[in-house]
Design brief:
The chain is α/β, with parallel strands linked by helices. It starts with a helix and ends in a 9-residue tail after the last helix. It has 17 helices and 13 strands. A hairpin with a 3-residue loop joins strand 8 and strand 9. The strands form two sheets. An eleven-stranded mixed β-sheet has the order 1-3-2-4-6-5-12-13-11-7-10, sandwiched between helices. It has a single domain, classed as Amidase signature (AS) domain (Amidase signature (AS) enzymes). Helix 3 packs antiparallel against helix 4. Helices cover 38% and strands 14% of the residues.
Length: 465
């Protein structure tokens, strides 16, 4: 296998290649580090590359392999390189939150997903680009190069997990961690032709800190295949002492679910979002082609969509409070986040918004009493160009953001699981994806369905060299 093919090999296959001694952890790390050194200056997918640490661990893991008699006792992803989003603390590494003033901020602890990722045997290559404090759906923070979409470098990979998505799509890591507080995994996955999972609320712990903005955000995987994403979600999932909400461990595992039959599901779909309108034609096409695929696979598919009326205002108020919740002084923030900081509301207004969001969320969850799965566009239109909104006012930018990402926030608000999948390419050669949303804690159903869709209609892998 040549180095390019290996760089784009699914993470589960790389783990098996290490177990069978076909490739060593050190060879893999060196392969990805060479690609990062050569391609990241153009792509902007990493803020920080931890080459020395990654090589040291890879050497240790390679030596460990030589002394083992029972390779099956290795952690599931022993030696596989991964990237971590730069909103997520990793002990001893910078955590900038996409803020130039915090480039010297070194984390003193591992977030829960990080220590679980380390325990699974992964080797962390570095911290990936994010929009400042994760607030924007494109990844162009001041003081950093913009993250670019490897399918077309003039366009954004989305945000705020844009760096993670770009790195996976371009073969600069095998798989990556992201987080989603309003589409920040699903949008980049769709823009970069990947699988991205926003799990159910309580599936992945935020320990040692509390939840984020009343539970709207969740950590999850970005991967090239459904099975890879499912296996990384298995690694990330689990209760940590003191979590404010949690779910039981999945049975079967999510990886096992990716190999099971999806069954005959009742599926709703829509190309429009109430109170926002119809998606762009290319996004409608992605949904309609998905509907045809699901019908051909034997599922019962019919038009339908939850009532999202009234959600935009309270969700926006909660989301914009992230600028104040970050604790970063206004002068260190870029203009959009500084403007959001100045719009900070009172505690009473925030709590009323949370109450409104939760009431509307009950209505959204109730929709799934009659359906197993909902299919929607991920974004309302194709990815924007780098800097396309740079000259707009903050008010205009906010309006554009709300309209673009409209299909995503309802499921952050309600805590429902959702998976973004690539569907088609637009005229600029950019992936356009859809998302499938499921019942509470029903990731296994979505994963089984996504794997069935992937097998029936594989999406091309980008050859980024």
């Amino acid at each position: 296998m040549n180095s390019v093919d290996r760089a784009f090999t699914p993470a589960l296959e790389l783990a098996e290649s290490i177990r069978t001694l076909e490739v060593s952890p050190l060879e893999l790390v060196n392969l990805y580090l060479e690609r990062i050194e050569r391609l990241n200056p153009e792509l902007g997918s990493y803020f920080t590359v931890t080459a020395d640490r990654a090589i040291a661990l890879a050497k240790s893991q390679t030596e460990q392999l030589a002394g083992l008699n029972k390779l099956q006792e290795l952690p599931p992803f022993f030696g596989v390189p991964i990237a971590i989003k730069d909103l997520t603390p990793v002990t001893g590494l910078p955590c900038t939150y996409g803020t130039q003033a915090l480039q010297g901020n070194i984390s003193a602890y591992d977030e829960s997903v990080v220590w679980r990722i380390k325990a699974a045997g992964f080797n962390i290559l570095g911290k990936t680009a994010t929009s400042q404090i994760g607030s924007l759906p494109y990844t162009e923070p001041e003081g950093f190069p913009p993250a670019r979409n490897p399918w077309n470098l003039d366009y954004t990979p989305g945000g705020s997990s844009g760096g993670s998505a770009a790195a996976v799509a371009a073969g600069l890591c095998a798989i990556a961690q992201g987080s989603d507080g309003g589409g920040s995994i699903r949008g980049p996955a769709s823009a970069c032709g990947l699988v991205g999972i926003k799990p159910s609320r309580g599936r992945v712990s935020w320990a040692p800190v509390g939840d984020y903005l009343s539970g709207i955000s969740a950590n999850g995987p970005l991967a090239r295949t459904v099975a890879d994403a499912a296996a990384l979600l298995d690694v990330m999932s689990g209760y940590t002492t003191g979590d404010p909400y949690w779910l039981p461990d999945p049975n079967p595992t999510f990886l096992e679910a990716s190999g099971q039959k999806a069954g005959n599901l009742r599926i709703a779909f829509s190309t429009a979002i109430p109170s926002v309108g119809e998606a762009e034609a290319i996004c409608q096409q992605a949904v309609h082609e998905t509907v045809k695929l699901l019908t051909d696979l034997g599922h019962n598919v019919e038009p339908g969509c939850p009532d999202f009326t009234g959600l935009i205002e309270p969700f926006t108020l909660i989301w914009q409070s992230g600028a104040a919740a970050s604790g970063i002084p206004g002068p260190a923030l870029e203009p959009m986040n500084r403007w959001l900081l100045e719009r900070t509301v009172s505690a009473g207004e925030y709590l009323r918004a949370v109450n409104q969001m939760q009431v509307i969320s009950r209505r959204i969850v109730g929709f799934f009493e009659n359906f197993d799965v909902l299919v929607l566009p991920t974004y309302m239109h194709s990815p924007i160009r780098i800097g396309e909104w740079a000259d707009l006012s903050c008010e205009e930018t906010l309006a554009n953001i709300i309209n673009w990402i409209a299909p995503c926030p309802p499921f952050n608000a309600s805590g429902l699981p959702a998976i973004a999948l690539p569907a088609i390419l637009d005229d600029n050669g950019l992936p356009v994806g859809i998302q499938i949303i499921g019942r509470p804690a029903a990731e296994a159903t979505l994963i089984a369905l996504a794997a069935q869709m992937e097998a029936a209609k594989p999406f091309p892998v980008l050859d980024f060299q």
